[in-house]
Amino acid sequence: MTVFADDGRHRVAVLVRHGVLPLELGLVHQLFGAARDPRSGDRLYEVLTCAVAPGLVRTDADFPVLVEHGTQVLTEADTVVVPASHEEDGVSGVLSEPLRAALSRIGPGTRLASVCTGAFVLAAAGRLDDRPAATHWKSVDRFRELHPRVQLDPDVLYTDDGDVLTSAGEAAGIDLCLHIIRRDHGAAVAADVARTTVVPPHREGGQAQYVPRPVADPGRRAATGAARAWALARLDRPVALRELAEQEGMSVRTFSRRFREEVGVTPGRWLTQRRVERARQLLEETALPVDRVAADAGFGTGANLRQHFQAAVGVPPSAYRVTFRGTAGTAGTVPTASDTATVSEAGGPAPSRPNGSA
Description:
With 358 residues, this protein is of the alpha/beta class. It folds into two domains: 10-197, Class I glutamine amidotransferase (GATase) domain (Rossmann fold, 3-Layer(aba) Sandwich); 216-326 and 350-356, Orthogonal Bundle (Arc Repressor Mutant, subunit A). The protein has 14 helices and eleven strands. Strand 7, helix 5 and strand 8 form a beta-alpha-beta unit. Helix 6 packs antiparallel against helix 7 and helix 11 packs across helix 13. 46% of the residues are buried. The model is unreliable at 213-220 and 327-357 (pLDDT under 50).
């Protein structure tokens, strides 16, 4: 019996367990549900919730949710998302037999994603062995103890390893869903979803910025926002660290320390990530030559763009353009492993500084 509608939309199944976090369940439905074809206005995804035992499923709040679908949904899905639960299955490192059997029904071509400690379920099922992963920073030590084969990154908001994606704490699930939408349908569709749901299309830094520090100054306000806004308006030209510090009236040393505390990465890495994002947007939405994209994004030369773009995204700009300009609006496209990256915010490591910038 077919559960999903046979209308060509990308099919997303959300596998919930008792103790599911309502925010994590809701954000998957809200974000994928808001993704629309820019030409027809049709929904691009169909999202269904399922459980091993359909019926009332407890949440970690004072209300249950009624789940109508069983695990048959998993066999038909293009993407399966596993949100967190504080009650059972996975966090102990052991899956119940019914849950393990349910996960075994997921086909080899189905994309998997987890939110927060949902990564424990994927890891316990062996789906994360020798692959990058993220989970909530409070659970990092426990995760490493239970799953030493997983390449856990405690700092990033989410990871993308092609057909398996994971995110950190609850709100990082928003970042992950927007990333998946962008990967499937391009920057314009993802940005429209972000505007519709009133969230930023990209968050800066990783989850390291949210970990409490032993010594904190409760009176300290955000100190580098003006410099970041100033730099974003000048991505097409060299931006020196000294210039950024001057925008806040700080020494270079103080600015660098404050920037790292607030954003989670160095000014130079942040600037490179922003430039890569600008290049991605131009490659997706325009027919500009690569050298012009490089100039407009602040990389100066096509060779410099290719170096940084390959390091951050995993493919050269020309291949990225063919993939994302050619498939925007086509649901269900899953890049190969070479197209993937581990994501701290929206970019990756920069081997050098473009144009001698910060």
